[in-house]
Each structure stands twice: as C-alpha cells, then as structure tokens.
Amino acid sequence: MVRWTHWLTVIAFIALVITGGELVISHPRFYWGETGNVNMKPLFTIHIPSSRDTVPTGYGYVMPDQNGWSRYLHFEAAWLAVITGVVYGIAGFWTGHFRKDLLPAAGERSWRDYWLAFRGRRARDDAGARSYNVVQRTVYLGVIFVLFPLVIWTGLALSPGFNAVLPFFVDVLGGRQSARTLHFFVSDLLVVFLVVHIVMIALAGFWSRMREMITGGVGADVVVGKERV
Amino acid sequence: MSPISRRKLLTGGAVTVAGVAGLAAADRIARRYGLIPPDGGGVYGPGETLTYAAQRVMGKHALAREFPRGMISKSPFMNEVAPHNDEFKRHQAVNFRDWTLTVDGMVAGPLSLSVEDLRALGTRSQITEVVCEEGWSYVAEWIGTPVEAVLREAGTLPQVRYIVYTAMEKDGWDSLDMADALHPQTLLTWGMNDGDLPVGFGGPLRMRVPRQLGYKSVKYVMRLTATDSMKGIGKGLGSAAAEGGYAWYSGI
C-alpha cells in the first residue's frame, strides 16, 4: 500500500509540477489580497519571459502558450493525488503505518535525538537500519499532514466553482491572489522536499533503495548488515 | 523470490474486479444524471468529469462570492481582443443601437431582442470577480439581464440541456449547462460600474458567468441557441475554447 500509493503520487506530483510551472509562465507575477493584474503592483515578479504578450516582462518575445493541456493535466493529476492521498491516509491509520513508521519513536523525541539523527550519528543496529530516524519521520509527517493538505487547500481556493460552494476556503487565506501566492510557495516547499529526498536516496544507495520501493523486498546489502544502511 | 501468496493474489484480483465494476457503475450514473461534460472524452476526460460532477453534486445552486462596493477594482484589466470585424465596426459607429440578441433553437417562441428589450425583461447587478485562467483577476460591478429571464420569455422546451451563445467575433461561441444558464448570477451584461459596458470589457453585450473562469464570459454576444445535445455543434466539444484545447467547464 505504501509503495503503490507512493509511486502514484510520484506520477501525479511530477505532472502537477510541470504543468503548474507552465501555468505560472502565463502570468509570472504574484499578488496579495483578493485581486491582482498587470495594472496593479505585484508582491513580487519572477523575471522570466511570459507566454502572454499582455504581461510586461522586459523580454522582447512571448513564450508558446501551453495552458490548455497544462490545465487539463494539472486538474486530472490533482484528482489522482487527492484520491491516492485519501486511500493512503485511511490505510495509514488503519494499519498503524503512521504510528509505527512515522511518529517519532517514544524514546527519541528530544532535541538531542534530532541533532544526532541530523548529524547521522544514530545507532546502526538492525532495527535502526530498517526504520526511519526522527528527522525523517518528522519531515515525512510534515509533508503528508501539512504540505499536501495545504497545497490542495490553496489550489481549491483558486477554483471559482468551488469557492461558490465553500467561500470561507478562500476568504480565510486573505483572498484569491493570496491563495495563488501561497499555492506557489507551498508547491516550492514540496519541490525542495523532493530534491532533498532524491539526494538522500542517492546517498543511501540509489538502486537498492529503488529496488526496495518498487518490489518491497529488502536490498541484499541491508540484509547482510554491511555498510549501506 | 518471495512467494506471492494465494491470499494476496485473490485480494488483488478482487480489488481489481471491484475497481473496474465500480468505474463502470460510476460512468453509468454520471451519464444518467448528465454529469459528463461535452469534452469528457479522451485522456483528460476522467479528470474533467470528476471536477464537473463534483461541483454539480456539491452545489448546483451555490452563489459566487459577491463583494462590497469598496472592493471594486480601481484599475480593472481590459484583456486584449481580436481586431473587430467590419460588421462590428458598423454597429459601433451607431453606438450599438441596432444590436440584437437572437434567441432560437428548442424554444417555444424564438426572439429577437434589442438591449432595451433586455432591460425591460429584468435587471440584476452583482459585484463579482473576473478570474482569468492565466491567474490575474479584478472585481467589478456587472449590470445585466439574467439569462434565465430571457429563456423564460422564449419558453425553452423541457428536453433542453445546453444554451449555446455566439459572439459576433469569429470563433466566439461557448455553451452553458442548465445549472449555469438558469443561475441567478448568470447575466447578459450591458452595464459595468454604474455605466454602459465599455467595448473593451465586452460591450454592448457580454455573457457573465461568475462561477467559471473569465474565458467563459464571452464578449459581444448576439445569439442564444437552446439545444438538447452538443453533438453536431462545431466538433461537439461544447465550445470554441474546448476545440482550442481549453476545458469546456471552467469552474475548475
């Protein structure tokens, strides 16, 4: 369950990041509050060319418009991510996955434990090698229970149809443009997580970790308790 | 290799069968209740259908957010429009006094209405946000005649499922399902911020659909057509936008 929901989320997330980037290009300006357009002062601007000639970018050319398919794919991938997330969430509580694998272990919640784990000085006994350390657990919980819900929330707050049904979704964020800006920042944090996640996997032994995450089997090097943990 | 147990195989098989059966049932229910958008085929069909169906189930009659007068944007953005054709320029030269809205298709009595006739049918104003798919937005007051009042006057037949609206501009046409067409905030707009609707914002007559993105609010509307199916209209996808690769339903 953890494995296949993981890979479905990977597919959805990559599609969301690529298409989300395409959509930003059509208006690489961000605002705060309810409204924002090129006649108004932006909160900040990303200095890239735009796919619309109505946006003043300082570049002498306009990028090709990719918004049609990007929008279709963004929302389809969002549905895949949400449905997968709901299945994972229910199963995670049901099987005790969150409690056993992700909640920091009872004797391992002090700042010192965080520091030791962060420095990579953690007991490398058999049990330790097969479970996540306290930093990993905290980060995973943050991604699963804070960043993903936030990115879905701020994304839904950009839907005029959804806002008609549940107006407080966008109102408590400070308005539509605030929601868009927050959606951008939370997405950025998720991309940062993805990069760090991949770097850590590379450091831990990319192919054995990939094999484990795909097949569920334990890599041979870990079973014999050698250097890779 | 680790032996895949019989139990696992059986569970996997049962889940697959249940999944396929569930999808087939969901598809039938969605079809029966008209929850599949005209562009609901193809690779993006499942996503579009889920979005459209979810919003129609959650809040068919929900109202778009309206804002206090103080939030009307001082500098609304006038999006660029294609160069006006000669016919439009002729109307513009006489201040649009001959502009007529034709109402036809599956109606008891087809109509031909001037903007004055529309005003007589009913007036409603709303302060709502125009939200462009690109990301920008502004708030304005929109004054117009509810599409519902026009359809009531023409007498739409019971089997009507979509209202197609056509602009004077080339390739300017779109359609609404009845939930949006009969929605009290869906207006044939002729006024903006206490004045006439400027040409740049769609004057003399613009469709305003505040529960959907800006591109659904087609400018320079001159015809409404009631139909029971989008098949045979254009490519059958429901709008010029959908034929250009943009979703028919833009409530997102």
Please provide a written account of the structure.
The complex is a heterodimer of chains A (229) and B (252). Chain A has 229 residues and is an all-alpha fold. Chain A has a domain at 96-229. Helices cover 65% and strands 2% of the residues of chain A. By secondary structure, chain B is of the alpha+beta class. Chain B is 29% helix and 23% strand. In chain B, a hairpin with a 5-residue loop joins strand 5 and strand 6 (173-177). The A-B interface holds A 23-24, 26-27, 29, 34-40, 52-54, 67-69, 71-73, 75-79, 158-165, 167, 170-171, 176-177, 180, 217 and B 1-2, 43-44, 46-48, 50-51, 55, 58-59, 62-65, 67, 71, 73, 75-77, 79-80, 129, 131-139, 210-213, 244-247, 250-252.
Task: Name a few traits of the molecule.
heterodimer; A: 229 residues; mainly alpha; two-stranded antiparallel sheet; 10 helices; 2 strands; elongated; disordered C terminus; B: 252 residues; alpha+beta; Sulfite Oxidase, Chain A, domain 2; 5-stranded mixed sheet; 5-stranded antiparallel sheet; 7 helices; 29% helix
Can I get a quick summary?
With 229 residues, chain A is mainly α.
Helix/strand layout:
The complex is a heterodimer of chains A (229) and B (252).
Chain A: H1 2-25, E1 29-30, E2 44-45, H2 67-95, H3 97-102, H4 111-118, H5 126-129, H6 134-156, H7 160-165, H8 168-171, H9 176-215, H10 220-223
Antiparallel strand pairs in A: 1-2
Chain B: H1 6-32, H2 45-59, H3 86-93, E1 100-105, E2 111-114, H4 115-121, E3 124-131, E4 137-146, H5 147-154, E5 162-167, E6 173-177, H6 178-181, E7 187-192, E8 195-196, E9 206-208, E10 221-227, H7 240-243
Parallel strand pairs in B: 1-10
Antiparallel strand pairs in B: 1-2, 3-4, 4-7, 5-6, 5-10, 7-8, 7-9
Question: Strand pairing plus helix content of chain B: what structural class?
Answer: alpha+beta
For the CA atoms, what is the radius of gyration of chain B? 21 Å
Largest sheet of chain B: 5 strands, mixed
> How does CATH name the architecture of chain B?
Alpha-Beta Complex
Number of strands of chain A: 2
The name of the CATH topology of chain B is Sulfite Oxidase, Chain A, domain 2
Number of domains of chain B: 1
Mean pLDDT of chain A: 90
Largest sheet of chain A: 2 strands, antiparallel
